[in-house]
Amino acid sequence: MDSDTACPNGGKHKLVTDHESGEMSCSKCGITTIVHEGTGD
To answer: Which Pfam families does the entry mention (predicted)?
Structure first.
């Protein structure tokens, strides 16, 4: 469930992927981004 993708708000933060909702969220600052199915964008 963890990702190596850096948070856009802080390069040292890591985004966590929720595969059920298709979202990635930062475990430290809470920012959430939507991941497009199949592309990872």
So the answer is: Zn_Ribbon_TF
